[in-house]
Specification:
By secondary structure, the protein is α+β, with helices and mostly antiparallel strands. It contains 4 helices and 13 strands. The chain folds into 2 domains: 11-76, no CATH class; 80-196, Tumour Suppressor Smad4. A hairpin with a 2-residue loop joins strand 8 and strand 9.
């Protein structure tokens, strides 16, 4: 069940024998994708790096993940049909044509993209995805880029913020889509939903 305000979250534990250690969001996504496509249960992930690891307070200490003291937490997962083909993402989806022109869309399960605090009010187990969608003027983009480090780029009149369990996005004309930092190519439409409590992660 997604986290509720004021309730404890996670429990002491270590990576089980069948768990998988990953060092990036892209590695985590690859493990999830392989398991889903093979019809196997998702393994517990030991997070040593990436934006999801940062959102969960991970230290990157492999000995801690394997032997403790570590924390095991339930985490939501993003699922998306990219022009009809199913993909998953653990931390974020980004759709854009360029950073300095055209529409920008970020769908966040984690709070950060690298050094940028994109979704300062997000949580990876609240049962929702945080969506930022807009086409700010060029001057505002430079200001927002600076403010992204502190999460003060929102609210902004040219950026629509939503907290959703599912959404449809028309990207016409096509926009390039990145899942957990990996370019999966241009797309015309996205059908996105959250899978609550889909993952168990150790940090």
């Amino acid at each position: 069940m997604p986290i509720r305000k004021g309730e404890p979250w996670g429990e002491p534990g270590v990576l089980p024998p069948d768990g998988v250690v990953v060092r990036t969001d892209a590695e985590a996504r690859a493990v999830v994708t392989e398991a889903h496509r093979a019809g196997r249960p998702l393994p517990t992930l030991g997070l040593l790096g990436g934006d999801l690891c940062r959102a969960l307070g991970g230290t990157g200490d492999e000995a801690r993940v394997r032997k403790g003291p570590a924390t095991v937490v339930p985490v939501d997962l993003g699922a998306v049909l990219v022009d009809g083909r199913l993909h998953w993402f653990v931390a974020h989806l980004v759709a854009r044509r360029g950073w300095w022109r055209g529409r920008l869309v970020a769908v966040m399960n984690a709070q950060h993209i690298g050094a940028w605090d994109v979704a300062p009010r997000g949580h990876p187990n609240d049962g929702r995805l945080d969506v930022l969608d807009g086409d700010p003027p060029l001057g505002d983009r430079w200001t927002a880029r600076v403010r992204l480090r502190t999460g003060t780029h929102v609210p902004h009149p040219a950026i629509v913020e939503r907290h959703v369990t599912a959404l449809q996005l028309d990207l016409a004309p096509r926009m390039h889509v990145w899942l957990d930092g990996e370019d999966v190519g241009p797309a015309r439409s996205l059908s996105i939903r959250v899978e609550p409590d889909a993952l168990r992660c150790v940090v």
